[in-house]
Each structure stands twice: as C-alpha cells, then as structure tokens.
C-alpha cells in the first residue's frame, strides 16, 4: 500500500477505506513494536490520520476497529449524492427512489441468486401446479440454495420451513401477512413441517416495553398468524420467552452459534456499538437456532441433518448469512432462503411501513370505512395533476401504490394486466384505480377478521405447545 497521503481516496468504497485504515493501523503498531525511527513512525501516523479523515468524510462516521460498514447496505443508484442511496438493514429500509429499493443491486450486494424463469419452471414441475403469484410477479425475487431444496423434494428427502415475526405491536398490518401467506402455500404444496418463531425477546431488547407486554403482543400476533389458515397438525408456533427455557436442544444450538461468532463479527454485520446491551449482541444466535432441526427434538426426533427453508423479507438476510457461515462449523446444514421485496407504505415505496404509524398501511383491525379513507387520502398516486393531463399522458404504474398493493393482493393476472394498461394509457383515472383497491382490500381484511374471531386462547395454546407433528422422522 502506498503511504502517500496524496493518493486518490475518493474512488474507494467505504469498505475499501475501512480496510485501508485497518491495514495502516496495524502498520503503525508494528513500527512502534519494532522501535522504528521516529520520523518513520510519525509519517505512518500522519497517513493513518489522513485515512481516518477520508473514512469519516465518506461515511459520516468515525472509524471504529472491528466495525466495518459492509452490512449497513448502501447501494448507489447511479448518483453521487448520499441521499440518493438505498439503506437496508434488519431495522431500517430507506430509498429516495419512488420505485422502491433497487433489488437487482441488492442481490449483487448480498451475494444471493435471482429467482429466474428457470427456477420458477422447476418449482412448477416439482409441485405439479402453477406457482404462487408472489413468485410469478417477482415479489419473492431472490434465493439461497433453493435448488438444494428442490433436489431434496424430488429425491423424497425431508426438509422443513421456518419463518418468524417480531411482535412489536398488538395489531399487524397487511404487509406482515406476505411471508405467512407464502409460507402457508409452500407448506401445502410441499407437505412439510413449519416452525414459526415469535421474537418477543428481541422486541423487549430493542423497544421501550416490558417483558410482559412483549409476550402479550406475541400471543396476539399468533392469533393473526393462525388466522392465515395454518394446519395445527403440521405447525409449531413458539415464543422465545417461552420455548428457550424448555428446550435443551434449542439452547445448545444457541450456545454453539455464540461460540463461533465473535463480537467484532456481529458489530460488523449488524452495526452494534459498545453502548448496546449485551442482549442485542447475543440475539442473532437466537434467531439462527431455529434453522437447525435439532432445536426441535419433539418434531424431528433429534435428527440434525434436515435442511431448513426460510421465507423472509430481504432485510432479514444478514441474520442468515451469519447462520450459513456458522452452520458447517457446528455440523449443521446451511439453511436455504427465499427473499421477498418490501411491502410499500401507503405514502410510497421509499420506506417500510411502521406499526407505530396508523396511516402508513392498512391494518388487520381496520374497518371498511377506515380502509377506504386511508387509500383515498394516503395512497401515493402515479397519476397526473389534472384529468386532462392524465388522459393525455397516462399514469405511472412504477410508483403508484394502488398498483403495488394490487400486485400483492389481486390474484387474477389478466385483471391486473388490464388495470395496468388502462392506467398507463390514461383510460383509468387514479380515483377509479383506488376504488378497485378498496374493493379488493375490504373483503380481504374482513375475511381475515372473521377467521381471527374463531382463534381462541385454547387454539393458540395448542399451536404453541411443543409436541410431535404429523410427520415421521
């Protein structure tokens, strides 16, 4: 590495700058330890300070040893302005692009694989039916090792599903349904066991709430999950606050993961700092543990070689990149993953929705009137400023939230394509498109509410009781 402070540092990425600072710091320590001449040490220190200044100018943060910026994902969208970059981590999703996050660049950054036509066709051949519209429309767009899962299925080898929910509020919104609706479909077409983790411990650690409140939210969220129609004989739902204290297998896997991941690694992956509580630092191992079948001896008869498939939103991938790295070192198979895009807020695709903002989405507790008001008042429009301009130039489906929501929830492919064409041509006005969305969402939410009413505390208890499921292992 050249020691000249005049070298061009502007072309380096934040991660490259971090590596340069780290390398120079090691050089300074080596020179001091070797009792090098004072002028040589001084020159190396000046170079180190120059690199640290460049790092802070580029990232807006002071350099911290062992805390690289690699997984606080910044994806440049062809601009040089920092505010025009995408930020994706397990707690934040931000983009200045009205179309939403650039998922193709996210695939490259995360090192996952695109779900292409060949994979979708292979899934169709394996299950003997049309793939879910979430696959056909690119809502689940990325994967890790889905080919291995299909190999197992075609060779009649077992696998299981794992997904989860962080119960941050009593009421879930329609975006929270996406992984569960897709997981239910996967469970039905492949006929496999499913475990659902409720990370009430995580929410206690990250949010301003009591342990009791976090557990209460977990049980309430479980009712909404059960209302999606999961088979009680094939599904185990568990609260971390409950299950961790009763399963030796689960805790043993947590400890194994904890031993093989360093503090510097979790700081680098998740952005933890020295001021974060130790609960946060150790939590990733708890989210990793359900990826291993030995965490559920009552279901898998203690077998450790059964692979796991995890459907989740792409922001959860850092947890499972860590898990996949650790798995071979503790004698476990790497989990496979299917990643979904983010469900947009009513105000636009720039951010994920917030459970604390009632107007950011349609909640599963909303009345038909509330749904109508929210869509009419808050759903971001891709239409023109005037009817005349809209008729002449048409609407922009790429940024229109009504079109985005219909892409998730309108199952009829032909109807969706007709709406897109009519809106793009200017034939369909924004108000008319919103009316279609209202008529789609009102019965969907109402039907969910009716199913949820049938979910008693006793049913929740049955789903959450550790037990053997309807499978032999």
TrEMBL record:
Enzymatic class: ligase
Q: Which family does it belong to?
A: Belongs to the class-I aminoacyl-tRNA synthetase family.
Keywords, A to Z, come to: Aminoacyl-tRNA synthetase, ATP-binding, Ligase, Nucleotide-binding, Phosphoprotein, Protein biosynthesis
Q: Which GO terms describe its molecular function?
A: ATP binding; tryptophan-tRNA ligase activity
For whether the record's keyword set contains GTP-binding, the answer is: no
EC number(s): the record gives 6.1.1.2
What NCBIfam families does the database record attribute to this sequence? trpS
Looking up SMART domains in the UniProt record yields: WHEP-TRS (SM00991)
- What processes does the entry annotate via GO biological process terms? tryptophanyl-tRNA aminoacylation
* Gene3D superfamilies in the record: HUPs, S15/NS1, RNA-binding, Tyrosyl-Transfer RNA Synthetase
State the protein's name.
Tryptophan--tRNA ligase, cytoplasmic
Q: Where is the signal peptide?
A: none
């Amino acid at each position: 590495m050249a020691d000249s402070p005049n070298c061009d540092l502007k072309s380096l990425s934040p991660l490259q700058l971090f590596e340069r600072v780290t390398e120079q710091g090691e050089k300074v320590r080596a020179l001091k330890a070797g009792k090098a001449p004072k002028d040589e040490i001084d020159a190396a220190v000046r170079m180190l300070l120059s690199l640290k200044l460049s790092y802070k100018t580029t990232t807006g943060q002071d350099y911290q040893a062992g805390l690289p910026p690699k997984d606080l994902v910044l994806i440049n969208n062809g601009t040089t302005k920092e505010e025009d970059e995408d930020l994706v981590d397990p707690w934040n999703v931000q983009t200045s692009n009205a179309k939403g996050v650039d998922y193709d660049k996210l695939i490259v950054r995360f090192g996952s694989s695109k779900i292409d036509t060949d994979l979708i066709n292979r899934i169709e051949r394996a299950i003997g039916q049309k793939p879910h519209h979430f696959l056909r429309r690119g809502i689940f767009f990325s994967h890790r090792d889905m080919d291995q899962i299909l190999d197992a299925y075609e060779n009649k080898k077992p696998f299981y599903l794992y997904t989860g929910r962080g119960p941050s509020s009593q009421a879930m919104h329609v975006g929270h349904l996406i992984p569960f609706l897709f997981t239910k479909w996967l469970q039905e077409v492949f006929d496999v066991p499913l475990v659902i983790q409720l990370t009430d411990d995580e929410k206690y650690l990250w949010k301003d709430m009591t342990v009791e409140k976090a557990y209460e939210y977990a049980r309430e969220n479980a009712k909404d999950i059960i209302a999606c129609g999961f088979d009680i004989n094939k599904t185990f739902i568990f609260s971390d606050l409950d299950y961790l204290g009763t399963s030796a297998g689960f805790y043993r896997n947590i400890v194994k993961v904890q031993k093989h991941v360093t503090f510097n690694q979790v700081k680098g992956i998740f952005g933890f700092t020295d001021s974060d509580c130790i609960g946060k630092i150790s939590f990733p191992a708890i989210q990793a543990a359900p990826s291993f079948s030995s965490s559920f001896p009552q279901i898998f008869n203690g077998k450790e070689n059964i692979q796991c498939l995890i459907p989740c939103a792409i922001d959860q991938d850092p947890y499972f990149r860590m898990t996949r790295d650790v798995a071979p070192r503790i004698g476990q198979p790497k989990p496979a993953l299917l990643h979904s895009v983010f469900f947009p807020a009513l105000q636009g695709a720039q951010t994920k929705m917030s459970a604390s903002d009632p107007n950011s989405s349609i909640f599963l507790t909303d009345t038909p009137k509330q749904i109508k008001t929210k869509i009419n008042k808050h759903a971001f429009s891709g239409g023109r400023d005037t009817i005349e301009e809209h008729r002449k130039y048409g609407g922009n489906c790429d940024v229109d939230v009504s079109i985005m929501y219909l892409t998730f929830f309108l199952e009829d492919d032909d109807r969706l394509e007709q709406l897109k064409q009519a809106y793009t041509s200017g034939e369909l006005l924004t108000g008319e498109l919103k009316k279609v969305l209202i008529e789609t969402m009102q019965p969907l939410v109402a039907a969910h509410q009716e199913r949820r009413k049938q979910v008693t505390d006793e049913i929740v208890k049955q789903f959450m009781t550790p037990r053997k499921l309807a499978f032999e292992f």
